Each structure stands twice: as structure tokens, then as C-alpha cells.
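quick one before i forget lol
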Amino acid sequence: MTPVPSTPFQNFSPRELKRLLRHAYRPVPVVKRRRGGSGTEGGREWTVSETQLLGKVLDEEAARLLRRSRSSVVSKRRKLGIPSLRPWLRPWAKWELRLIGKLPDAEVARRTGHSEYAAASKRRELGLPKVDPKCRPWTKREDALLGRFPDRVVARRTHRTAAGVRARRAVLGMGDLFETHPDWTPAEDKLLGTAPDDEIARRLGRTKPAIQRRRVKLGIPIKSLTRHHWTKEEEALLGTKPDKELAARFRASLSAVKSRREERGVRAINPCLKWTAGEEALVGTMPDQELAGKLRRTVLGVALKRRALHIPPFKKTTECRKSIGPARKSERTR
């Protein structure tokens, strides 16, 4: 067999040959890989030195050094059972699996080098509960504190939340042992709806949300200064006294009384709206603003009354102006 003569271009890569020869370069045809083959990359088999590099560097770096694709490097590494260099891709060791479910996920990630997400995923895969200091199981010593101290004290001593303590107490069926007012009395129920909720809460020493929950449970309407629930006796008194007096009596706002009266078509009764004969005689004798201050009325009310009596606005006499006028003209001629 005659040896193949060496050429001066055999040490050059295809890229370098293309750069040197330009249009005269003819690449070597690539032989297609047969389907079903294994252990080759485009017909190139893996050598022992190449397989020894797997697992010692990252897959991307191995693919660059071996001039292979990353998927080929990953497939060959997994086929040989070589773990990845990345912590979150390498398999879990036996001593690492013993820590899962006994320590929090963050602590497992810190000790093993895996990510916290990988530790949580592995824990869920094994069906183990999450280990959390706030969600840890209750001990007999901690359960004994539930019936002796309020929830806040138990939460502080056990390093738990107050909501967790209430939930544990509800599971054990203990109820509200340390509630200031555990039960409602008939006398307290009668006060609901007679005044605003904040005032009832101040009288009974309870919170406003507790008053609201109890009132809604009993179906009692709210008593509010802005939203008044009218009774038949209160509606019968509309128009018999001034709105301001009725508002103080009903413990409602003045606008609420006025709106209810106008809705019922009842005319307002107010002593200040009636004009006496002496007051009508003063209309037009002085400016409206001055008369309003004297009669303790509004300027608009005085003006409307003057217009109703067909009295023109008050004007000062012009006698002084007439006497002053010629004098000023004489002064100008001087």
C-alpha cells in the first residue's frame, strides 16, 4: 500500500483553508450519520481521553475543547453516569438526602451546595413536609401553655405567631379562654342600635368591629349621624319644631332632618323666618347689609323680603351732592 503523500495544507483547519484559498476552496463532503448509531459525533467516535474530560469541566467548555455539540457532551456524560459539575444538576448523595425534611430548605442548600429551589423540589419529590420554625409541630410543653396564658404571651414564649396560637387552640377545642367579654348579656344586646357603634363600643369597653359583628348577627340596623333610620314617631314630629332642635333630639344631622322633611312634603317651621310688622317697616330705610346685621338675618333674606314688598334699594339723599357740586365748580374756575 503506497503511503498518501503529505500536502502543505493538511495542518490547516477548514476555516483557515477557506480564508487562504477563497473561491478556489472546495470543502470535503460531510458523511451523514446513520440513524441508530451511538457513541459517535458525525461519524467520529469518542476516545478515552475525551471521556476523561467529561465531568471535570462544564459541559459548554468540554464541547468547545472537543469541538462537539453541547447536547452530545451531555448525552455521553449521562450515559457514562458522570455527574454534572453544576451543583443543581448533580445527583443527591445519601448523606444529603438524610438532611431533607429535618432541616429547612435554606439550611439544606447551604450545607449541600444545592440551590434552595432544588432542595424544595427534592423534598416535594420525596413527599416530606416543609420544615419551618413557625410551622413546626407542637410539643406537650407548648400545648400546656395554651390554657394558662393569653395568645400573645404564648406566641412570645414559643416563638410563634398569634394566629398560629389561635389556630392551635381552636384545634384543641379550648375556645376563647382569656377573652375580656366572652359572652354577650341581654342588657348589652339592648344597647345595640340605640347609638353609633363607636359610642356603644366606648360604653361597653369592646371594639367597634365586635359591636358591628354582633349587631349584624342580630339584624339590628345601624344608628348613624349621617344615615338615620326613621321611626313613625320621629316622622310625626317633623315640621312641629325647628329642624335644628329635632336634629339634636333625634341625634341626627341637620341635613338628614331637612331631607326627610322635604321628602315627606312637610313645611319647615322656624321662628326666624316670620317677619313682624316692625321688621317690615324697616325694610328700605337702610342698606340691606346693615339691616341684616340689625335684625340678625342674612343679606339674601332681607333682599328677598324687600323685593316681595316692591321696595327699591336704599339710596342716600343727593342734597349734599347738590350743595357741594357748585362749590367745586367755583373752585375749579379760580
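fyi Residues 48 and 163 are 62 Å apart (CA to CA).
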